[in-house]
Amino acid sequence: MALINSSILRKIVMALSGLFLISFLALHLTINLFTLISADLFNEASHFMATNWIIQLMQYVLAIGFVLHIAMGIQLTLQNKKARPSAYAMNKAAANSGWSSRNMIVTGLLVLFFLIVHLKNYFWVLKFGDMPYSSDYELVVKLFENPLYTLLYVFAFVLLGFHLDHGFQSAFQSVGINHSKYTPAIKWLGRAFAVVVTLGFSLISLFFYFSSLSN
Amino acid sequence: MDLTLKIWRQKNTSSAGKMVDYKVTGISGDMSFLEMIDVLNNDLVEKGEDPVAFDHDCREGICGMCSMYINGEAHGPDRGVTTCQLHMRKFKNGDTIYIEPFRAKAFPVIKDLVVDRGAFDRIMAAGGFVSVNTSGNTMDANALPIPKDDADEAFDAATCIGCGACVATCKNASAMLFVSAKVSQLALLPQGKVEAERRVLSMVEQMDKEGFGNCTNTGACEVECPKGISLTNIARMNREYLKASLTYSEK
Ligand code: HEM
Ligand code: SF4
Ligand code: FES
């Protein structure tokens, strides 16, 4: 399944698809945060996303972006495993590299698992299922009454945070952007983005879970 | 000091190897790591056993031969040094030290700690040169002015000694740091710019053919490189490669 034979082109595709997924995350988080402001605002935004033709078109681009990113990520990891057939008896990986950089496939695959659950929870219900609630907002409220879903979502956001902390700056290096002045800023921005994404999404899940308790 | 060594012993490329325990005594902190192995090998020879095979040549950090993975790190725990420059004072009396060959599919073990790094030579042969005839008509060095910054960067990249520590350390056994240093040292200078596009394409193609892994920017190579080769070289190679893939037409 050699989609791309050149190691560097493969990384460039991963980086560009990764950056595209990052822009999607930023938009997704912004819309979700509307839930904390008002139900109407969120329903309106959600309705806009579901009907606007540009967004509808971008859905397909997004799906392609995910497929490319995931397929290349898996292929790259398999090749990398083959490149070192026998392991070291003693290896101090932590002496020279960060945890998130060494576990991209682990955080990536767990995020993928979450993504499937998440699509089933929302996308599937809204697009193909019989929507049991009167509004998108209510669908959100109902889901987070379940502590298991809340826990799974928060766990996934933490993993996504680690994926982004390495991924964000790594994508710039992959496309050849490394500069003594800007690279430290890119690393800082990536970490800040990872923290905002993790905290932002988690906050929403936890907010609805705890609100359901007090009702 | 007295030490316990766990050393990888492997008869040849096709045989299976294993870790074997040895004891060495009376090691001075002023010895280099290779001198410590010399002491062990003297003992082994006197006992009529097969000494531990390891690569070395200059013993002063310039040839890049002394490949050893020591206690989980390429060239051991010190920074900016090769194994021959590693002093025994970095260890304590009673320590146990793991000594393994550089492990990568592209670096098959020849015997014990000796690996075949011919893959690097083949990558160099694929494009790591400048095609000018220098015999008898060498140009005066000052006839071609080069900005100091470019010269410095090219020189920094050129200090790569081809030791393979970057590959050994990388969790993906990727050779990107080595190849990017070689691409950069030439691409930064006017003599090398002429062939820059063809060079980066063929060197990367050869790198992939040799079975090295894909870079995932963990940065481990930069930390363990004895010559401090920087990741900026990898970014430069990625740029050069992207540009060349889009614009280079001759085959
Ligand atoms: C919203 C979801 C995701 C985002 C925003 C994202 C973002 C990124 C970014 C920016 C990179 C760095 C690319 C580079 O260095 O060139 C990356 C790398 C990677 N991603 Fe993702 N990713 C996501 C989901 C996934 C999923 C579902 C997988 C599952 C297989 C995955 C697996 C990987 C792997 C294996 C790497 C390679 C590690 C590396 O090269 O540094 N990612 N990701
Ligand atoms: S880049 Fe550094 S670690 Fe890699 S071969 Fe060159 S000198 Fe050795
Ligand atoms: S023996 Fe030459 S670098 Fe160590």
How would you portray this structure in words?
The complex is a heterodimer of chains A (215) and B (251). By secondary structure, chain A is an all-alpha fold. Chain A has one domain (7-214). Helices cover 80% and strands 0% of the residues of chain A. Chain A is globular, with a radius of gyration of 19 Å. Chain A starts with 6 loop residues before the first helix and ends with a helix. The mean pLDDT of chain A is 94. Chain B starts with a strand and ends with a helix. Chain B has helices at residues 33-46, 118-125, 148-158, 165-169, 176-187, 190-193, 196-209, 220-224, 232-247, and strands at 3-9, 18-24, 69-70, 73-74, 96-100, 109-111, 114-115. Chain B folds into 2 domains: 3-111, Beta-grasp domain (Ubiquitin-like (UB roll)), CATH 3.10.20; 117-250, Orthogonal Bundle (Fumarate Reductase Iron-sulfur Protein, Chain B, domain 2). With 251 residues, chain B is α+β, with helices and mostly antiparallel strands. Chain B is elongated and about 60 Å long. The model of chain B has no long low-confidence stretch (mean pLDDT 96). In chain B, the strands form 2 sheets. In chain B, strands 2-1-5-3-4 form a 5-stranded mixed sheet. Chain B is built from 9 helices and 7 strands. The chains are: A mainly alpha (215), B alpha+beta (251). The interface between A and B is large, with 40 and 47 residues. The structure holds protoporphyrin IX containing FE, iron/sulfur cluster and FE2/S2 (inorganic) cluster. Residues 11, 14-15, 18-19, 21-22, 25, 69-70, 73-74, 77, 104-105, 108-109, 111-112, 163, 167-168, 170-171, 174 of chain A line the site of protoporphyrin IX containing FE (HEM).
